[in-house]
Amino acid sequence: MPPRAWRRAFPQATLAAIEAAIRASETRHGGEIRFVIENSLAPGQVWRGMRGRERALDVFSRLRVWDTEHNSGVLIYLLLADHDIEIVADRGIAARGEQGAWEQVAQTMEAAFRAGEFERGALAGIGRVSDLLAAHFPPTGNNPDELANRPVILGR
Question: Which domain covers residue 35, as residue numbers?
Fold first, then answer.
């Protein structure tokens, strides 16, 4: 996959829309959302047999999505080359939810992405994650924005 293929799917206007959706979402619940786009894995990662889920867990750790006061971080990770979406929820959320709900969010996003509708798919995914978080983590009086809302592009 060309190194900058992500720009066609996620131009600056789409990245700004994702950032705004995350910011608005986090007023509805006590969770924190990070959205990460990676064009493709590095050759060494592929050679070692790394898959999307393993990479998502690595990114979850490296970006410190786990480092929130209530263990309420969620990573939405998109590996463009493999058409793979992985959602990783921190232990505070995973203890209250079911894995099937996260898989349904990923499937909704994948369907939109297959149709070439990346912005719609990303925003639908963020909206559904927000709904799940609102059900399990309603906002409290003190609801700081602990993680950056801007999407992260890996391997630019």
Answer: 6-140
Residue 153 lies in a domain: no
Radius of gyration of the chain (CA): 15
pLDDT, tens digit only, all 156 positions of the chain: 666 778 889 999 999 999 999 999 999 998 999 999 999 887 677 778 878 889 999 999 999 998 888 888 999 999 988 889 999 999 888 766 666 888 999 999 999 999 999 999 999 999 999 999 998 888 877 777 889 999 999 975
Here the CATH number for the domain that contains residue 53 is 3.10.310.50
State the pairing for strand pair 84-89/73-79. antiparallel
Q: Are 112 and 152 in contact (CB under 8 A)?
A: no
**Sheet with 73-79: strands ordered across:** 84-89, 73-79, 32-38, 152-154
DSSP 42-106: -HHHHHTT--HHHHHHHHHHHTTTT-STTS-EEEEEEEGGGTEEEEEE-HHHHTTS-HHHHHHHH
Four-CA torsion 101, 124, 135, 138, nearest 10 degrees: 140
